[in-house]
Amino acid sequence: MKKILWFFGIVIIGLIGFCIYFLNAAMPTGTGYSAKYICSQVFLAERDPAVVFENDVKPTHPLFGVIKFKVNRDTKTVTAKGFGFWSPMTAVYRDGCGCTLAVDTPIEELLNQSKGFIPQQQPNTQRLWPAGEGVNLNNIPSEIDSNKLKSVIESAFEEPGSDTQRNTQAVVVVYKDRIIAEKYADQFSPSTPILGWSMSKSVTNALVGILVKDKKLDIMKPAPVSAWTDANDPRSKILLDQMLRMSSGLEFQEVYAPFKDATKMLYNSKSMADYAAAKPLRTEPDNEWYYSSGTTNIIARIIRDTLGGTLSDVTNFARTRLFDRVGMYSAIIEPDASGSLVGSSYMFATPRDWARFGVFIKNDGIWNGQRILPAGWVKYSTTPTPMAPKGEYGAQFWLNAGNKDNVSDKYFPSLPSDMIFLHGFNSQITAIFPSKNTVIVRMGVTHSKADWDEEGFIRQVLECIKS
Fold first, then answer.
1. Does the N terminus or the C terminus of the chain have fewer Cβ atoms within 10 A?
2. Domain identity same for 277 and 409
């Protein structure tokens, strides 16, 4: 009997030890995610922190149910702790660049980074969109079934079941470069910036394109990464083109769970680019396509270093050379603690500004008659990378081209093959249809794919446009 008791005692102690080990390793992800997410939603989007935690954060993972957080509006910080004491993480807001998780970095150091920013311009509220923020939903083109479109959009904001979590926050539909329909959830408006998550990657692509136009980057040369300069390092041969096309061969786990690369990079790394660049090759470049946020953050640091190496250098460049020229005055790409933009994941913009970017890409990188992206850049970016099995990816853009040997085998089978789209966590999407002259933006916090039929919604919107 004593041996059995000893055995069970040892098992229980072992289980307790494993739980402590697991929580100790996983908790920084929970506290880091909570602090960073709530900070951005409170100080950028001006949302209620309690609502943000209950609706957006807590349902994301069971671990987040034990998180306690505190918002300090005087210092513009948010601190989150497990059970109120475990693994505290703090995010700090800075005017002009949003929130940053203070990983291995004193807040004073972060505040020192946030100097020299060019002020954000304010949109013109009188001029019609896309030149300004004016929207006229009267006299919609006759080829639009307005009543049907309104019904489709209304349904996107409905919860079909008592336990579903669609949480649609905004929908904007653009036809022939004009907003023909839009709707916002309670406590959201056309001026509310919303996190695009991985939609940010396509904007990072555009920043590279501008530097290519300026002849400051050549994508067909090895990526200028300081950690790979040794000629004997096989990574020194990775082309920037291969990184843009997610075909670099670098090891990276695009899994959002404790102990995985994506979460370690986003919530436990001072420099996300350093974390990703330290990974070895798992295959030769161009032998395999696989999605990697780590690759995009290396690209984002290349952009910063090419421009001078400071946070203000890259923030001002993004603002003056892209956002201001396209009228995306709300757009902010938040940086990590090293002062490099988190180009994979952390861009905020209003739904109308995400739609502006969609129109910009649809129109081949030209705005108001001026070419901002180099000629051929959009075509390059939206040509399927050879190893993508369904022709679903170009260079930081998702595609719906289909398998080269079977075009019906595509990402969204019922949607047009010329579809180009930005895609992000929680079912963010900016869908571009050149043949339909249409852009559709849907944003929200959908916690389960079973709760939201993304393809079905877009198909129904397109069915309202007879062109």
1. N
2. yes
The answer on 316 and 201 residing in a single domain is yes
The tokens for 403 are 């398998």
Q: Report the predicted TM-score, pTM, of the whole model to 2 decimal places.
A: 0.95
For residue 257, the model assigns a pLDDT of: 80
* Straight-line distance from the first to the last Cα atom of the chain, in angstroms, rounded to the nearest whole number: 81
Which has the closest alpha carbon to 411: 425, 398, 428? 398
CATH of the domain at 406: 3.40.710.10
Give the Å distances, CA to CA, from 239 to 109, 220, 242, 342, 387: 33, 6, 5, 21, 16
- Domains held by the chain: number: 2
Neighbours of 204 (CB within 10 A): 25
The answer to whether residues 80 and 210 belong to one domain is no
Please check whether residues 90 and 230 belong to one and the same domain: no
For residue 205, what are the domain limits? 170-463
- Whether 247 and 367 share a structural domain: yes
Q: pLDDT (tens digit, 9 = 90+) per residue, 49-100?
A: 999 999 999 999 888 999 999 999 999 999 999 999 889 999 999 999 999 9
